[in-house]
Each structure stands twice: as C-alpha cells, then as structure tokens.
Design goal:
Radius of gyration of chain A: 21 Å
Strand order of the largest sheet of chain A: 1-2
Helix content of chain B: over 70%
Distance between the termini of chain A: 24 Å
Shape of chain A: globular
Order of helices and strands of chain A: HHHEEHHHHHHHHHHHHHHHH
Strand order of the largest sheet of chain B: 1-2
Order of helices and strands of chain B: HHEEHHHHHHHHHHHHHHHHHH
Structural class of chain A: mainly alpha
Number of strands of chain A: 2
Shape of chain B: globular
Largest sheet of chain A: 2 strands, antiparallel
Oligomer: heterodimer
Distance between the termini of chain B: 24 Å
Strand content of chain B: under 5%
Helix content of chain A: over 70%
C-alpha cells in the first residue's frame, strides 16, 4: 500500500471524507464529477483504513493526541481491534453504498443531491471518528456530530412527514445523549478523573457496586443510537430518509456507532470484571432481551417494507447489546461479529427495498405479490440477506448468533437463550415471507396501474451493490477467520 | 503603563462628552470605536501583567488607601475587564451601521455619548477597589443604559426603560444602604480593608443586615429569579447593538460584584456558611432556570426568547457561586466569559436580521436562511453554544457546572441542569427550524445578506465560541486561577 504512517492514518481517515465533502460541494454543478469525487474519496479512505489492519493484528496501538480541551481530557485518536472492525465495515460499505446511491438517487429523481452527498461524507467522517476515539470524551464529540450531520439526510425529502421524522430522530438522540450519556460521562470523570479507554476499565475497587450499576445503566440507555427500548422510536422515524441513507446510516454507520459505543464502554471503560462483580448487567440483560422480542413482534405487524426492516434492525441491535451486557468473552466476540454480519445482511435488505421502490414504486409488503418474476436478482439478494440475518447456514449470520447463544449458555441465562431462538423463528416469519410473496404469488388482477410498471429490474448500479453485499454474506460464512480473529483480539485472545 | 487601570476608565469617560459635542454623523462612531479598541489593548495588558506579576494596586490621584480611592486589579477583575472591553470592541464596529438604521439621525451623537458612559460605568465597577466607588459607577452605567434602552425604535422601549429604571434604582438603593451600614460599623469603604475588619464583627446584627441589603440589591441587578422582571422587556426593545452589549456585559458585571462581595468582602465561610444564602441561591436559581427556560420556549420574538434564556443562564452562574467550591466558582466565572461570547454572537446575529427585515419576530424570520445564510448560520452556531454542544464554549461551562454539582454529590441538580439544556435545544431549535425550513414569503424575496460590516463582528464572536470550546487553556484556565485566589486555595 502507500505506506502511510499508522498514526497519520488515524487523522487522515477523518480528514479525507471531510475533504471529499468539500469536493462534492464544489463540484455540485457537474453530477458526474461529483459522483466521481465521492467514489474516489471512498477508495482513498479504504486504502487508508486497510493498512491499519495488520498493525492492529500485530498488537500495536497507534495513538495520536490532537489537543487537550480540558485538563486531563484530550481529544485523542487510537485504534484497537473493535474500532478497526467498525472502521473497516464503515469504509468498505460506504463505497458500495455510493455506487448504489448513484443508481438510486438518479433513478428516483431526488432533489438536492449535492447536499445529500456532502452530508453523507461528513457523516462518514464522524463515523471514522467514533471508531478511532481514544477516550469517551472524544467519542462523545463524534457521536453528537454524527447525530447532527445525519439530520439533513433524514429530512432530505423536505415534506411534513420528513420534518416530523427528523424531529423525533433529533429529539430522542439528543435528549438521551445529553441527559443520560453526558451525565454518565461527567460522573465517571468526577469519580475517576479518567475517561481513557483502557484494558480493564477506569474504575478502581473503591467505587461502590450500586454506583457502577447506575452509571452502566445511564450509558446503556444514554447511547440512544443502540436503540435499546424504550428509546428506539427514532430508528423507525428515520426511515423517511432516502433508502441509501437508511441502508448505510441506519443499518450500518449510525446504529452500529451506537452498539459499538456500548461494546467499547463495556470492555474498555468499565471492564468485564467490574461489571460482573457489581452485577450491573443483570436487569439490563432482560431489557435487551425484551427489545429483541418486542421489536420482532412489532416488525411482524408492519406492512411498510422499510418500517419492517427498521424494527428488525432494532431487534438485531438488541442482540449486540445483549452480547455486550453478558460481559463474557464469548458475548463480546459474538456481539462484535454481529456488527459485521448484520451490517452485510441488513444493507442488502435495504438495497433491495430501495431497488423495489425505484423500479416498481412499491413500498408496502402487500403490494409485492408476483414481483419476483420481474426483479429476480433483487429478490434473490433479498433472500440471501434475510437468510443471513435469520442465521442459517451457509450465511455469515450463523457465526455471530452461534457465539451469542454460546455466551448465554455459558452464563446459564436460559431465558435469554430461549428469546434468541424464538426471535430467530420470528425473523423467518417476517423476513422470508417477503420474497415468498414475490416469487410464489401472482399479482392481484385488480392492482392499480400507476404508470410505473414499465421497467424490469433495478438500475445496474443498484444490482452491483446488492450483488457485492450478498456475496459477502456467503463468503463470510466460509471464511470467518479474519473476522473472528479481530473480534477475539478485543477480549485479548490472540490468534 | 502604570496608569492603565485609571486610564482605561478615564478615556471613555472623557470621550463621552466629546462624542456628544461632535456633529451627528460618522465621527462619534469612529471615536467610540477607537476608544473601545484602546481600552481593549489596555485590558489585555492588565491581564497579562496580573497573570505575570500578581495583583496591581493603583492609587487614584496619588491618595493612599484606605483614604484615597484604590483601583485594585487581580485575576478576577482583570478577566472581567477583558470581557467587557472585548465585547465593547466587537460591538462598537457593529453599532455603526446598525444604529444608523435604528436610531434617528439627530440622536446619533447622544447615542454614542450614552454608550461610552455605560462602558465607563461597567469598567469602573469592575476595576475599583472601593465599595462606594463601585456604587457610583453602578449608577453611571445604570442611568446611561436606561436612556440607551429608551432609544429603541419601538415605543414600548420607553416603558421597558422606565421599568428598568424603577427596578434598577431600587437595587442600587439597597446596595447603597448595605454600603452605608458596613461603613457605620467598620469605618472604611475600601474592599481590602473591609475584608480585614469584618471577621471580627461577624456577630453584629448590623453586618447581617448589611449583607442582606447588599445581596438583594445585587440580585436585582443580576436579574436573579424572581427579580428578573425588568430584563426581558429591556433586552427586547433596546436597539440591537445595545441589546448585544448589555446582555453580554451588564449582568456579567453584576455577577462579578456578587462574587466580589460574597467572597472577598465577607468571605466564603460567612457568606455561604453562617448566612443561609446557599439554599436561597440554589432553590431560587433552580426554579429560575426551569421556569425561564420554559418561558423562553413560548416566546414569539427571538430577542425576547434570548432574554429569557439569559435569565436562565444567569441562574447557572448563581448556582456555580452557591457551591462555594473552587470548581463551582471556576464554573461560574468560565460561564461569565462563555456566556458573554454566546449571547454577544446571538444578539448581534439578530441585529443583522433586524437590519435587513426590521423585525426579530420568529414568524417574520421564515425561510431567512435562503437569503441570509451566513447570518442564520452564525445564529445556529451561537445557539449550539448556548445549548452546550461539544466543541463550543457552552459545553465547557456545562461540563464544569455539572462536575461541580457531582463533586458535592448533588446528582439531582446535575440532572436538572441537563434537562434544562434540553429546553435550550427546544428554544434554539424553534428559531432555526423557522429560518431554515419554512418557505420564504414572496415579500422577502429581495432581502439580501447582511453587509460585511455587520457580519464580521458577528463571526468574530462565533469564531470565539468555537475557539474557546476547543482550547480552554485561557478561558477556564484563568477562571480557575481567579477562583483559587478568591478562596485562598493557592496564591
């Protein structure tokens, strides 16, 4: 590769998308140049992030202090296995989503595309910042910036519904982060004088168990992006956004920033031993379990395709939070792997949903009857994504669910194991029923011809993106090694 | 150089009658701008000297204290002087075009005369080391600011100024009674002298009475809830530049006086320990913060909204003072600085809006972001700072305040402060959403961006909000030193 110093790679990963955002804004008048800028930026970003991988696997921790804002509270960057995993997924899928977005945005004749691509690039910069934060303070900065920068994307359509969705989105994310998360951060700092992410956490033995419990709960609910119930409503509300946004941000970057933060806080701010010793996780585990089950149940009642996928995401995020809350090695490994496998699966589903909207202008599940014949590739991709999320072989989703189930067995949480199994069954029901309808039912004769039934498959750019992510779901089943190694490094298991 | 403490007061004082004598036009404005920049240079020098070599004592007219008037500059008031001078130096360039548009031509000279007098008064209150002298400067600044507010183009400015006059005079009278009582038992008016003699008299009922009068008087000037009723009208109807200047400096100077009286004159043990001031301050401030934040959400005029928010923010400062700890005091002093920056930026941005559309009603600002993007963006960033979003100055204040609350174990107070910052999100968002997402009415299609002469001062303050949100070595650093000096923790 280009041989960038790992330390420089850290800040470059944040600055490059920002430069890309400026480039996009400047070239807005020439759409082809503008899209080229986005793609080139994506490739450059990936080529900056990937060389960090071997560095991390070798056990090195490049670290960069930018500025000391408050005494003992620097804005600093570093990379460890979990951040590496998140950054890799984010930067890789940005390129894929950009390809998809070009097909989608043009096919859908969206307005204000320059603003769209600009904000998208800024959101990616914030995501990289979250991934590479060296302490909770820095992470919080990027976390909030991510919320603000994605707001224009959520309200992109500018309609009343979009504004209303945007208000819920901003309202829940800002209030949870300010009232719970910031309180927890300042409280932690005033107790320990330290917010650095470090092995075993920052808490010494002198902090009473009840306080650990309170703080951990404040973090768990305060990280609203992890969509733990009852603070999950923002995610369905965000579905008013254009589909590429729902795909990358609300299946990958934003929501994964949430669960990533939960994992990070669990492993590096508290430390697994502190949490289990204080029993801080016990009741929260059942909140996560309830989230998994309830969100799945709600998803079954949704006829709108994107709303159904949104609730499915809430449920799947619950898996990752559950993995973190179990606070065992297997749980963390399962949770971290689920960040990756769910990312590939869910983004495929959203890509397909968007393709259906562009090519056939259908948004409701009940309208999809017989569409499989017209869009076979799209629905094939959808099926693969769905199977991966359900967790069936030969798809990647199996591995993460496997480790999560092992972790519940290991800690003898039989109820939670049951919830995982029941939820998988529910997944089968509400996800697989969609391609089933498309392939095996015939379109109702009374269907209103809305003048959009002219086309066949989705735009080529969309198909390419879907093809890539669904292939990744299969490849990761057969070659989960690198992913597992990275996840295992988090809890100190070196390959 | 050694005459700077006196010179920075005398310069604007002498310039005031000169400005009044100059013909209406640009000249008074140019004079005022030159004076304010000169004062800023002196304030910077003073702060640098104090930080380097310790407090400065200046004997006015060569008469040694405690008989003569002493000007005593330590870290705290050098810092506040810099805030007042800095805001003055940014607001006066803005006042040129803004006041030309808002104030009748025949009153221009008078306007700058009054402005300079207010400036003199505020600097004088801060610099002096004599408590009666403090009262004199308080009256200079108050009387001239009543007249300044009355210059607003809305006729309601007159009643607002009158209301402020009545309340302000009551406050000043209380202050004076307190000073008189102190003099009757100690026989001195010099603050350092008072601080030396008062501990022996702590049991005296006269001292307790004096304390009550002083605190009540300052609380009126500081607009501590529920003594804030004069403030919203005064800020709303004053000319734009005056709103920005007074909002950013006058109440901050009152906060300074409060800190000086509580911590230097009476001492922390007496003020917060023996006197039941801590619960009074905390309870009133907490109620004030909650109530006035909610009032701000319901306002229809953006200036009035900011005025209510100011009362809430002053409540935060009062809470910081009430802790009586180094961290709490650092929070309060840092917030004095940061709040001056954010309110200055916000009121100036609204001044630019008023310059173009002649109104600051939220409804009238619909869609304004399309034609005045830089002004609205400045307002948005100032608003983020007011909310306390990370990487803005407001976040630093909030961080310190909440740390101070948690340090005391008052987690409920921390929760209340975080919830009220959500209220701030709501009232700032209210303006932004209208300006950004509503459609621009046809009648305003030809509105243009504010001129550079207005935008530059606005953006100077906006940049300061971001700068001091990232690099806090100066703002929080100096505030911490001032707090340590007040509480006698460190030299």
């Amino acid at each position: 590769m280009m041989g960038i110093d790992p330390v420089n790679a850290l800040w470059l990963a944040i600055v490059v998308p920002l430069i890309g955002a400026i480039g996009v804004a400047l070239t807005g008048r020439w759409p082809n140049v503008r899209e080229a800028v986005t793609l080139v930026t994506g490739v450059v970003l990936l080529s900056i992030v990937v060389p960090l991988w071997p560095v991390v696997m070798a056990g090195d921790v490049p670290r960069l202090v930018l500025i000391e804002t408050l005494p003992g509270l620097p804005i600093a960057l570093s990379v460890e296995p979990l951040g590496m995993l998140f950054a890799l997924i984010g930067s890789l899928l940005w390129i894929v989503t950009s390809v998809y977005a070009i097909g989608y945005m043009r096919g859908h004749h969206e307005k204000n595309q320059t603003r769209f691509y600009t904000c998208f690039a800024i959101a990616i910069a914030c995501t990289m910042g979250v991934a590479f934060s060296d302490n909770m303070f820095t992470l919080f900065l990027f976390y909030e910036a991510l919320t603000v920068s994605t707001y224009p994307l959520v309200t992109h359509a500018g309609t009343e519904a979009a504004k209303k969705g945007g208000r819920v989105y901003l309202g829940i994310l800002i209030s949870t982060s300010i009232v719970f998360q910031l309180l927890a951060i300042i409280w932690t700092y005033s107790l320990t004088g330290n917010l650095d992410f470090q092995e075993g956490g920052v808490f010494g033995g002198e902090t009473p168990a009840w306080l650990i419990g309170v703080l951990y709960a404040l973090f768990a609910f305060g990280i609203g992006k992890a969509a733990l119930m009852p603070f999950h409503r923002w995610l369905p509300a965000a579905m008013v956004a254009p589909t590429p946004v729902s795909a990358l941000l609300h299946a990958v970057a934003v929501v994964k920033a949430g669960v990533f933060t939960v994992l990070k806080v669990t492993v590096y701010l508290f430390g697994l031993d502190t949490i289990t010793a204080a029993g801080a996780n016990e009741w929260l585990l059942y909140v996560a379990g309830a989230t998994i089950l309830l969100a799945s149940l709600v998803a079954m009642t949704k006829d709108n395709l994107k709303a159904r996928l949104a609730y499915s995401t809430v449920s799947q995020l619950g898996y990752i939070v559950l993995g973190a809350l179990l606070a065992t090695q297997l749980g963390i490994i399962g949770g971290a792997m689920h960040i990756a496998t769910h990312a590939f699966g869910k983004i495929t589903l959203f890509f397909a949903a968007g393709a259906i909207m562009v090519a056939a202008h259908k948004t409701e599940v009940s309208q999809l009857d017989g569409l499989g014949k017209r869009m076979p590739w799209t629905f094939a991709a959808f099926t693969i994504g769905a199977l991966s999320i359900i967790g069936l072989p030969p798809f990647a989703g199996l591995w993460s669910k496997w480790y999560l189930a092992l972790a519940t067995l290991e800690t003898q949480h039989w109820v939670l194991l049951g919830i995982l199994m029941v939820s998988s069954l529910l997944n089968i029901f509400y996800l697989l029923s969609i391609p089933m309808r498309a392939f095996f039912r015939t379109a109702a004769a009374t269907a209103v011809d809305d003048g959009h039934d002219h086309g066949g498959e989705a735009p080529v750019a969309c198909l390419l993106a879907m093809g890539f992510t669904s292939l990744a779901c299969i490849v990761l089943f057969f070659y989960p090694g690198p992913l597992y190694d990275l996840a295992a490094m988090i809890v100190g298991v070196t390959p | 150089m050694e005459h700077f403490p006196a010179l920075m007061i005398v310069l604007p004082l002498l310039a005031a009658p000169v400005a009044a004598a100059l013909p209406n036009g640009r000249l008074p404005w140019l004079l005022t701008t030159a004076v304010s920049w000169g004062v800023l240079a002196m304030a910077c020098f003073l702060l640098a000297t104090v930080l380097g070599t310790g407090p400065i004592s200046y004997e006015m007219g060569g008469w040694a204290p405690p008989w003569g008037i002493e000007f005593r500059i330590d870290t705290l008031n050098a810092f506040v002087l810099l805030i007042v001078a800095g805001i003055g130096a940014v607001v006066t360039p803005f006042a040129g075009p803004s006041a030309r548009a808002e104030i009748p031509q025949r009153l221009q000279s008078l306007f700058y005369c009054l402005f300079l007098l207010t400036y003199t008064g505020l600097l004088g209150i801060t610099a002096t080391g004599d408590i009666f002298n403090m009262f004199v400067f308080l009256e200079i600044s108050s009387l001239s600011s009543y007249a300044l507010i009355a210059l607003g183009r809305d006729r309601r400015a007159l009643t607002a100024a009158y209301q402020y006059l009545i309340m302000g005079t009551i406050g000043a009278t209380f202050f004076l009674i307190g000073v008189g009582l102190l003099y009757s038992v100690t026989g001195t008016l010099n603050i350092a002298d008072l601080a030396e003699r008062l501990p022996a008299l702590e049991e005296a009922r006269v001292v307790h009475t004096a304390f009550a009068f002083l605190v009540a008087g300052i609380a009126l000037k500081l607009a501590l809830f529920p003594l804030h009723l004069w403030l919203p009208n005064a800020y709303t109807y004053a000319p734009s530049a005056v709103s920005a200047f007074i909002a950013a400096t006058a109440t901050k100077v009152a906060v300074y006086v409060m800190i000086r009286v509580l911590f230097t004159v009476f001492g922390v043990e007496f003020s917060l320990g023996e006197m039941p001031l801590q619960p009074i301050l905390v309870v009133l401030s907490v109620i004030g913060v909650v109530v006035t934040s909610l009032m701000a959400i319901n306002q229809l005029d953006a200036k009035r909204l900011l005025a209510y928010s100011s009362v809430a923010q002053l409540g935060y400062m009062a809470i910081g003072i009430a802790f009586g700890t180094t961290l709490g005091l650092t929070a309060a002093i840092t917030h004095v600085f940061n709040h001056a920056l954010m309110k200055g930026a916000l009121f100036l941005a609204l001044g630019a809006v008023a310059y173009r559309i002649g109104s600051t009603r939220i409804h009238d600002m619909a869609g304004l972001a399309k034609v005045m993007p830089w002004t609205i963006l400045a307002f948005a960033i100032g608003g983020l700072s007011l909310v306390g979003v990370p990487l803005t100055a407001g976040f630093i204040s909030k961080w310190y305040l909440i740390s101070a609350a948690l340090e005391q174990g008052w987690w409920w107070l921390a929760v209340i402060m975080l919830i009220t910052s959500l209220f701030a999100v709501m009232y700032v968002w209210k303006v932004i959403e209208v300006a950004w997402f509503r459609d621009l009415p046809e009648s305003r299609a030809d509105v243009r961006e504010a001129p550079l002469s207005l935008l530059v001062p606005v953006w100077v303050l906006v940049a300061a909000n971001v700068w001091f949100g990232i690099d806090t070595r100066f703002s929080a650093g100096v505030a911490a030193r001032a707090a340590e000096a007040l509480l006698g923790v460190a030299p």
